[in-house]
Every structure is written in structure tokens, then in C-alpha cells.
Amino acid sequence: MKIMFCALMLLASAIAHAQPGSVRINEIMYDDTAGIDVEWVELYNTLNVPVDVSHWVLTDGNTWPVPTSEGAIQISAGVTIPPLGYQVISKQSLIGVPGLVCAEIDPSWLLHDTGDNLALYDGVGFSANLIDGTIAPLQNFPDLCGLNSGNSLEKCNQAAPWSTDPSQWHESTHLYSTSGRYRHCTPGLPNSACASLCGGSLQAPPMLTIPHTAVGSSNVINFPIMNDGVQTICIDSIRTNGNVFTTNVPPVLLEPGGVFDVQVMFAPLYEFDFDGVVTIYHAQADTPKTVVHINALACTPVVSPPPPILHSAGSPNHLYYVIPWDPQNSERTKYAVEVSPDAFQTSWFIEPIPSNPGPQTVYFLGKDWAQRGTGVISGLNPGTNYQARLWARDCFGHEMVGTFAELSTEPAVQFSADPRLTAQVIHPDSLRLR
């Protein structure tokens, strides 16, 4: 029994209960994009332990206790806000925002679009404690969002008490969604930074190269950004273009000397060279955005190529060859042509020069690569069977060899000449008789 009693005492002590300032009214969505607003308020736990907010009441009225002069909503039982955590509350379900639906215990809980007061109590009745906010008339939050429907009002300092001072609040700059009721806001996230609190100097690499990436897969790299100034850097968002996108989402407050790792994923759907940028946007308008250039190459892995096409050249010393269309490999695949008279016990490589109709007498022991090629293999022995095959290489440097094609050269030309004629050799395949 003592052990169980001690355990219960420890559990109870780990959860904080009502005390003024333990929870703050942190973010207010008072005017969404729809004709009839679905408003919400975000609460922030300033403590390093969970806070039990069961049965707490949020009112926008000017009197207490309930019924108030306007409206009030009440949090249900068993709700805690985690340490330094957030809880969005509303009187009805929210679309696209993680929030808690509260009971509307005093009708007409509706925030004015030009500003309103809010008061957070830890219960109902005269004995309830005011945790944050005010019921005093005209002690309203400032209307800083104006006609920008769908943008929330955020505290500059999340732990600061309620204030009517516009410098203590700002319009959210964090893009939450491009459609729907809520556009710029941070429900359940740290607030975007107030420009008046930001400065600093950001250090980031100017250029990054992502390793070659197979089409249909992805590669992830991280690069650090560092605040090497003496003021806090307020990063509003990090955006990319093309097939590169970040997987960690700011806003970020970067203290002097602080480092933040930006994670970038490259996920190509087709083969191409990618030149893109990662753009880091600052909350303060007078600070230029930081741009990091990204280079990447998307590659299609090579497969075994088809055999070359061989044709008789009408000569005992030549064969025509063509590197055929290869639908299984990409257009960037490169090829080398290997020739052998003895099933590749011995062999050599020729230089595949695109659209070259002339004889090719330059041979290589190593592969010489080209994307397409056609031409004449010269210097062959008459009446001899030759094999030719293709090697294919992708941009990873991986190689695959294909099956071979086989063809014989023409037999040597036999002729007899009148001894009175003079034979003059003008080409290995041609004679002139006089």
C-alpha cells in the first residue's frame, strides 16, 4: 500500500494544476476565409511539466462568472497540455487543424473581427482563478490581420501575459495551407517570429550536390545553417522547387551560434539533370532571403542492351554495324562495340562514331563510349566469321553486356589477268588494270 501511495503521489506531482501564468493565450484565429467563421484559440503551456486544464473556461465576455455578457466555452475533463506544448480549442470541429471541441456553456461565443478581449479561467464560478487574459472592456487583442482572412494573430513572446499592445503581437507569416479556411497560422506549432525581435547573420553552403539518384527512388541529404551573428535569426519558411523538397518544416528561431539541419529529399520521376534552389525566407522583411543551389542527376539503371545489327559490306575486309534503338535503356545510355573472331577469347573495341559511314580502323583494348553509332568495321580477314556485341553504361558507371550478333566477311576475290595487263592497287578492295 505504501508503494502504491508513493506512486500516486509522484504521478500527481508530475502534473501541474491551476496557477496564473502557467498557460497563456498564444494564438487567435478570429477571422477565417469563410462567410461564417469557425474560430479557434491556441493555449500554450509555459511550464516544463504537463498542466491539467480539465473544465477550464475561455470567455470573451466582460463579466464573471457565467453567464457572461457574451459567450464562453469549456474544456472537457481529462485534458492536459504537455510541457511547453500547445492545445487548440474551439466550439466546433475544425477542418485541417488538430483541435479540441469544447462545450459552449454560454451562447454566442464569437470573436469580433476588429479585436476582442479573452479571459481564461480554471473553472466556473466565483472561486475560479484567472489564468490569462482579461474581462475588462476595451482590453482587446489588436486587429493586425485586417482584411487578410485566414491569417492568425500570434504572440511575439509565447510566455508573455495578455496584452493589448500591438507590438506584442503579429500576423502569422507561416504558410499553413494554400486553401481552406486557415492560411497563415501555426496551430500546434511554435509561432512564426516577430520581425521586431529578429536579426542575425545566416551562414549556409552556397552549393550542394545530391548523389546520383535512380529514377523512382529518392536520396536525402542534410546541410547545416548557422547563426554566426549576435541576434536571433527568425526563419519563416524553407521552400524548394522542382523535384526537391524539404522534409522538416520551420518556422525556426535560431539563437546566436545555433545550428539547424535542413533535410532535403530528391525524388525524381524521370531521368534529367536538376539545377534547383532551396530558399530560406526570413521573418524580417529587410533581411534578404538565403539561397542554396542544388545540383542533382536522376539516372535510369542500365539493363542488358540488344545485339548490334551487322550487314555485309560487299567486301572481304569490311562489315557494316549499327547500334540499334534500345527501348529498355534511357537516351543517356552510352555504348561500346566489342568485336571478336573467336567467341570473345580475344577481342577489341571500335570507336562508335555517330553517323560515320566510313571505315573505322582505330581499335582499342579498352571500351570507348558513345550514345549512338553506326559505321564500317575495316581491316578484317576475308571469309572469316566475326562476332560483335554491345556494352551499355549508365550515369552511375554501371555496365551491362548484351548478346552478340555474328556475320562472316566475304571471301577473298579470285581472278586471273592477262599477263600483258599491269595491275595497280589503288585500294585494298580495288584494282586498276591497264
Provide an overview of this structure.
With 434 residues, this protein is mainly beta. The protein has 1 helix and 34 strands. The chain has a 6-stranded mixed β-sheet, with no helix packed on it. Strands 15, 16, 18, 20, 22 and 23 form a 6-stranded mixed β-sheet that branches. A hairpin with a 7-residue loop joins β26 (334-340) and β27. The longest helix is centred in the first third of the chain and has 12 residues, at 2-13. It is rod-shaped and about 135 Å long. The termini are far apart. Residues 1-13 and 353-365 have low confidence and may be disordered.
Residues in β-strands, percent: 35-45%
- Put simply, the count of helices is 1
The count of strands amounts to: 34
Work out the helicity level: under 10%
Q: What is the molecular shape?
A: rod-shaped
For the report, how would you describe the main beta sheet?
6 strands, mixed
Mean of all residue-level pLDDT scores? 83
Q: Could you tell me the radius of gyration in angstroms?
A: 38 Å
Look at the helices and sheets and give the structural class: mainly beta
Strand order, main sheet: write it out.
8-7-2-1-12-13
- Distance linking N and C termini: 126 Å
Quaternary organisation: single chain
Low-pLDDT runs = 1-13, 353-365
